[in-house]
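FORM 7B - TANDEM STRUCTURE REPORT

SECTION 1: FIRST PROTEIN
SEQUENCE AND TOKENS:
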Amino acid sequence: MLEAADLLFEEFKNKKEIVSATNTLQLSARTVTRRIEVIAENLEAELADDMENCIFFSLQMDESTDVTNISQFA
């Protein structure tokens, strides 16, 4: 992450602060797992709220053929 931050924010005026903040992130396996769980719960709640408030919605389906000429439905 530090190498990526160093390259991504190369032209930013506050690059040192960004890299420093990246360096202090807690990225243990448990921390990452917990953050992903929180993000998933948030997305699920947002989707439920959107579905509750929508009047109409559409479904998009696709059918293609794989290399063995078998139809695949998505």
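SECTION 2: SECOND PROTEIN
SEQUENCE AND TOKENS:
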Amino acid sequence: MNLTHLETFKAVAQLSSFSKAADSMGVSKGLVSRHIRALESELSCRLFFRTTRSVVLTEPGKELFSAAQQIETISQKATQSINMLTQDGYGYIRFTAPDALGPLIAQSALPAFAKENPNIHLELDFTTDIKDVEFGESDVALRSQKALPDNLVAKDIGALKDILVCSPSLVNRHPINTLSDLLNVACLKSSFDASWNDWSLHSEDGQRVQLTIHGQYASSSYEGLISLAMGGLGIACIPLALVEKSLADGSLVRVLPNWSASQHHLNLVYTHQRFYPKKLREFIDAVLAWRKSNSHWFIA
């Protein structure tokens, strides 16, 4: 059904006049008549009883008018909903980040954003799975993928600084003063990604060493690796952001403090858009501010 014809029909029904409907729409009376005839032809029924003095809806016309009013209500509600989503200060932000980093961002970056945007609904998904930003599953993602579709924007966040840590008891049993000492002590392996077991270490004075580690204990998550390290079962290579508190309270100690690694180069990912909603711009700014305030967690 042609919605323009339906709109013309609704105007005639409301005003009970072809002439008045034409005037209200700024069109000719002939065009109004053609729209009504087209509708009647399409529906195979008469919509109006028309005399020189009155225009009255037929029974099918009354049914169509009721449906037209419902369509108008739905259209108005849809317009209101879209306006709520696109105007400043309303709508949803769906954010996904790795399960290790996501909670840190939620604790430090999002409270201020939420305070400034009380009507924004935040949906957080902390997972190592790749969420489909390209097709709208998430609005913003923090990811370390190197290859991204052309329709995505990747704002460089930087590489996380990974450090070597273990329990105080382990380093007391096996003092580690040089890189070669790592060959004689258990290291903790990642079962999530085997490539993470090749530690690309670099020193503060510019030296670089590639070290393939060996050990009998592994975990698929950083939380598991940290727990194994705290239990004295080996040395782990962990992002500084995740072990800073454990270093401060003494449950972990840093090994070879002049050496670090960088496995994960992070990007803030979102779709190309002609117009970026204010809520999205402010959310991205909040994450970038979090990165700036914690720059020591990243490789300079």
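SECTION 3: OBSERVATIONS ON SECOND PROTEIN
The chain has a mean pLDDT of 88.
Residues 59-86 form the longest helix (28 residues).

SECTION 4: SIGNATURE
Preparer initials: ____
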